[in-house]
Amino acid sequence: MRLEPKVAAPATGSILVVEDESALAAAVIDALRDAGFTVDYASDGEQALVKVGEQAFDAVVCDLKMPRLDGKAFYRALASVAPALVKRVVFVTGDVAGKQPEEFLEESGCRWLAKPFRLADLLRAVKETLA
User: What's the pLDDT score for residue 101?
Assistant: First the structure.
């Protein structure tokens, strides 16, 4: 009897990527789409809030440091416009050395990844967030 290799089922769900670094955003979007997710993009928190108001998302991948409306302010605003979505945010950040980002990430209870991160780790975090 020959065993077939296990193939992971394609991921499903709609993900909003909120990231001001365009090269990183493109890599994250491609990885999520390749995994089977439907993906939309916002370059900052203000644009992300508009998109959340226009359509439903299953999860959000969000940078902490961005111009205009940063990840923390976006998260707090998200709590009032889409409260169910706040526990399905995965933060990515290059700023974990400071006390404030660390306290915020702990307080939010959300998953987070330090930049640079492996795309496989991001996919795992998103799938765990949706589980």
Answer: 83
Q: Which residues of the chain have pLDDT under 50?
A: 4-7
Place of tokens 């999520």: 32
Helix (H, G, I), strand (E, B) or coil at 78: helix
**Pairwise CA distance, residues 95 & 102, whole Å:** 9
Sheet strands (E) in the chain: 14-18, 38-42, 59-63, 89-93, 111-114
Pairing mode, strands 89-93 and 38-42 = unpaired
pLDDT of residue 43: 96
Instruction: Tell me whether the omega of the peptide bond preceding residue 116 falls within 30 degrees of 0, making it cis.
Output: yes
- Closest to 9 in 3D by CA, of 115, 125, 123: 123
Please count the CA atoms within 13 angstroms of the CA of 59 that sit on its side-chain side. Answer: 24
Give me the residue label for tokens 């945010």.
89
* Model confidence, pTM: 0.89
d(CA 113, CA 94): 9
